[in-house]
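Section 5.1 Outputs to date
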Amino acid sequence: RIRDEGLNRSQVAEAFNHLTNVIGPRLTGTPAYKQAADWAEARMKAYGLKAVHQESWPFGRGWTLRRFVLEMTEPRYMPLIGYPEAWTPSTKGELLATPVYIGDLADSNAVRAQAARLKGAIILATQPQERFITADRLEPSLTDSAVRIGAPPFLNPRGPITGRGSNVLGDAGAAVVLRPTQGQHGTMFVLGNRTTRDDAVPTVIVASEQYNMIANMMKAGSPVKLRVAIETKYETADTNGYNVIGEIPGTDPAFGSEVVLVGSHLDSWHSATGATDNADASASLIEAARILSSLGLKPRRTIRFARWGGEEEGLLGARAYAQAHYAGDANAAARDKLSVYLNSDPGSGPIFGWYMEENAAAKTVFDAWLEPFKDLGARRNVMARIGSTDHLAFTPLGVPAFNSLQDYVDYDTREHHTNMDFADRVLTQDLKQNAIVLASFAWLTATRDQKIPRQAPIP
C-alpha cells in the first residue's frame, strides 16, 4: 500500500518544486527559511499529522543578498560569475577600479607593508587556482573496500590571506576581497560565517576560470578594471532558528509512547536553491508523512517527523532538539523511549541503503527490510559511519541513529554547497523512491516488537 500510494498518487514533485523554485534558497535566520518552515508546518497539518508545531532556538542574525554587481569593464567588457559569501557586509557603494593583486606576497606582514595600496581597493587575495575538486567520493554501496566516507577536502589556493577570519585586510581598509573557488566549469563553493563582523571586508567567491584570467592579465601588465557592488541586509527582527515537528501517534498500549524519529534539514546555503542539499530529502520526508497519514495507518510506536534548521552552520537545530528533549538525567526516560533516529541528507538519486554506524545487530534488521526495495534501486546497507549530518546530534546520547546512503555522482564536484544546486539535478522518480523507503522504514520500525538494537554512545 505504501508503494502504491507513493508511486501512483505522489505529491512529492509539487513539494519539491515549492521548496526549490517557489521559496528558493533557505538560509537559516532569513525570512525565506521561516517561509519554508511555515509552509512545512501547514503541509503537515493539512496531511492530518498531530501535535504539529515549530520549536525555536537561539541562532543569531540572518542575512539576505539584495543586489550584486561583478563585471570587468577594461580592457574589454565581460560579466563575471561570482557570489558574495553569506553574512558578508555591503560594499560602500559601487566600486570601479583597477584591482590590487596580492597573491604573490609572502605573508600577512608583507600585506601590512602594502597598506597604502590596499585602502579602498578591490583585492585579488590569492594566486590563480590550480588545484580543483575533480572527483566525487567513492560510492560505498558499490564496494566493500575501505573508502573515505565524506566529501573531498577543500583545495585552498596559495596566498598570504586565504582564511575568512583575518583582520589584516580590514585593518588596511580594503574595500572588497575576491577569492577563487575549488570548483570547475563555473561551479563555485559558496558558504559563509554567521559570526562575520559588521566591519569585515566584504568577500566574493569568483569562478576560478575567470579569477585566473584576471590575475594572469594583471601579471602581464594588462590595464584591468572591475566594477563591484554588494548590497546586503542583516536580518535582526527574529534571531531564532526553527525546527518543524509533527507526528502520527502510536497506538500500542504497551509502547505507543515510544518514538521513531525521522528527520532532514530544511535549510540550505544561498547561491542556488538547495535542491540536493537538502530540498529533495525534505520534500521526500513530507511525502512520507503524507503517505502514512493518507493510508490511515496506525503505527504501534509514534512516528515523529522533524525538519531541522541550522544544519549548514553546525547541525544546530537537531542538536538543540536533542539537548532539550533527550540529553541529561532529566530526559533519561524520554531517551529510553526514542527507538531510532533516521536521517536523510547527503547525496541525491535513490536511497541505496543506510550507513549503519558499525551497529551490526541493527544492520541485520535493516538488511531484511531493504530487500523488497531492490527493484526500486536499493542496493545495500553499509557498516560505515558518516559525518556531518544531523544524526550526530543523537549518537552521543546512545540513540541508534542512521543516515540514508545515496548517489554521489556529481554531488561533490558540482552540487554540494555550490551555485549549481538547482532542481534540474533531481528526478521525480528518485523523490518518489526516497519517500517510499523513508515511509516504509519508519513504519517497520514503529511496528517491530522490539526497539532497534542499541550500542554504546558514539562521541
